[in-house]
Specification:
Rossmann fold, 13 strands, binds iron/sulfur cluster, alpha/beta, binds 1,3-dihydroxyacetonephosphate, about 350 residues
Length: about 350
């Protein structure tokens, strides 16, 4: 976290202490200067920077006032008194901050920071499902856009999905849009799941309308986590028999099964901090491995960095500085949509 009387050299030294074994010195010097400029502007403009756990290590360790998983950043967005929120994460996260803070200016450093899950479903798709399954409550993963949240009863994140589903006490739940998270939650809560878009009403054998299925899912996928395979885990365990494998719940249930732990990005960070293994494999966006390695220099982080989130990687120190200098890119949510989405987000935050 930035110091009160920060100097460019002081910030560089602080960053070097944490990141010397992760980021080359020449890059650290350059990035420390950018970060220092951002921290000055932040104060001048009464801005808060929220940084998702996937941010690259120099950014992650210099400008955010708060870092965390989607759930923690929602909580921080709900509490902030700043005039401007700069969201170093992807668009659905910045939109959630705007939903919670209509009177504040919310900025996202890149307009291209999307998400394959948010892109996988529209508000019209949710309305069709609601018409097909009347009265069945809709849970949407926060990785959706505001108009989809507006059609939902409650949101969830990877950190509280099972808890949110169980809190409803409902016989059946529509859970959107991540197929793998839905399958993982179905298993965790002992429910049978069906994907009706794959199974026409008339299909023999599987009847989506049957009460035999307590969860109704959608077929969105995270373009990052869907790429990890059981074979990857087998190969890495062969090479490093003592490795502890952590998988985000956006990975397939087979990958989660073959892993030692599955949880949100914050839960994975806590798991590494609280266990003593010498070596971990992180099946999630590669930058988070750098951040955990920086915080735990005696533990080795293995990661498959050919699998990256192009959206999270859009967010750089250069773009964040430009965002504050030019007040760009402003995130807006139409008021009627915002109000409906707000109740779904607030219900989730109340559950924790
Ligand atoms: P977390 O909520 O676990 O931080 O995950 C967000 C995300 O986009 C994972 O790909
Ligand atoms: Fe979306 Fe996947 Fe990127 Fe997370 S890692 S922001 S779920 S595309």
């Amino acid at each position: 976290m930035p110091q009160a009387q920060e100097t460019s050299t002081g910030l560089y030294e602080q960053m070097r202490e944490k990141l010397a074994h992760v980021v080359p010195d020449v890059e650290l010097r350059y990035k420390a200067e950018l970060a220092h400029k951002i921290n000055i502007l932040k104060k001048e403009r009464n801005a808060v920077v929220l940084g998702h756990n996937y941010m690259e290590p120099a950014l992650y360790n210099s400008i955010p006032d708060f870092t965390g998983d989607s759930l923690e950043l929602c909580r921080q967005a709900a509490k902030t008194t700043a005039d401007i929120i700069v969201f170093c994460g992807v668009r659905f996260m910045a939109e959630t901050a705007k939903i919670l803070n209509p009177e504040k200016t919310v900025l996202i450093p890149s307009p291209r920071a999307g998400c394959s899950l948010a892109q996988s479903i529209t508000a019209a798709d949710v309305r069709e499902l609601k018409a097909r399954f009347p009265g069945v409550p809709v849970v949407t993963y926060v990785n959706t856009y505001a108009d989809v949240k507006a059609e939902s009863d409650i949101c969830c994140t990877s950190g509280n999905a099972a808890k949110v589903v169980e809190s409803l006490g409902a016989e059946r739940v529509i859970f959107l849009p991540d197929e793998f998270l839905a399958r993982n939650v179905a298993r965790e809560t002992g429910r049978k799941i069906i994907f009706p878009t794959r199974t026409p009403r008339s299909a023999e054998g599987e009847r989506p309308d049957s009460l035999e299925y307590q969860m109704i899912g959608w077929q969105g996928r995270c373009e990052v986590h869907e790429k990890f395979t059981v074979q990857d885990i087998t190969d890495i365990r062969r090479q490093f028999p003592d490795v502890v494998v952590l998988a985000h719940p956006e990975c397939s249930p087979e990958v989660v099964d073959a892993s030692d732990f599955s949880g949100s990005t914050a839960a994975m960070i806590a798991y590494v901090e609280n266990t003593r293994a010498p070596r971990y494999l992180l099946l999630t966006e590669c930058s988070m491995g750098d951040n955990i390695a920086a915080a735990n220099p005696r533990k080795e982080m293995l990661r498959l960095c050919s699998v990256r989130c192009p959206h999270m990687n859009e967010i750089t120190l250069e773009q964040t500085l430009a965002a504050l200098e030019q007040t760009r890119y402003v995130v807006e949510v139409p008021e009627d949509i915002r109000l409906r989405a707000l109740s779904a987000v607030q219900r989730m935050i109340a559950i924790g």
